[in-house]
């Protein structure tokens, strides 16, 4: 690989994530600190390593041949072993680096910082995928497709967790707060997992329904997150720790 090719691969790996980052940051009327944005983005990137280790450990309990033979085990792996693992790691980044800081001063901040962590995660994931493609043309096509699919799903699932987490701060009772947060992580993991399963089905069947399913999931989740953004912007700023 030449230096020029390396730069090209790197740019088409990173730019889709930066594009979504700029898009989501515009949703906040009170801009976040650039330093904090970069910090959370980098921590999101770092979380790829524990995610890979945990996902590999989980797959050790479910041999690949058994996963392929059973839709239940396939769902279990992608919803819990992949979706839940990744959503919890994104949550931990924001929990440990944002919640108790001065950077969390309104409910929408939680959604945005979770999305930022998700985009950091998606950046490393995208680099791994793109750099394993042989031709520049195919790499460019895959990068464009992932901009609207895999990377988008990372932002949407993170936003779902963020919305329910933000909503939880409006409850006084700890049980209600915990239930709201749990609901968000569960819903995000389900949608994340079902999206991954739908992609596997495309590779296996390649029929019209298999191509439509991930599209339906993305559109449905996108509309849901759009609604959540409208709702979270109306939450009082007192809804915080």
**How many angstroms does the end-to-end distance come to?**
50 Å
Given as residue ranges, the uncertain stretches (5+ residues, pLDDT < 50) are none
How do the helices and strands follow one another from N- to C-terminus?
HHHHHHHHHH
Mean pLDDT: 90
Which strand-content bin applies to the residues? under 5%
Number of helices: 10
Q: Give the overall shape, derived from the CA principal axes.
A: globular
Q: Which secondary-structure class do the elements indicate?
A: mainly alpha
Cα Rg: 18 Å
Structural summary, described in words:
With 241 residues, the chain is mainly α. The chain has helices spanning 3-25, 34-46, 48-61, 64-69, 71-97, 108-130, 136-148, 150-168, 174-205, 208-232. 81% of the residues lie in helices and 0% in strands. The radius of gyration is 18 Å and the shape is globular. Helix 1 packs parallel to helix 7. The chain has one domain.
Short description, anyone?
The chain has 10 helices and no strands. It has 241 residues and is an all-alpha fold.
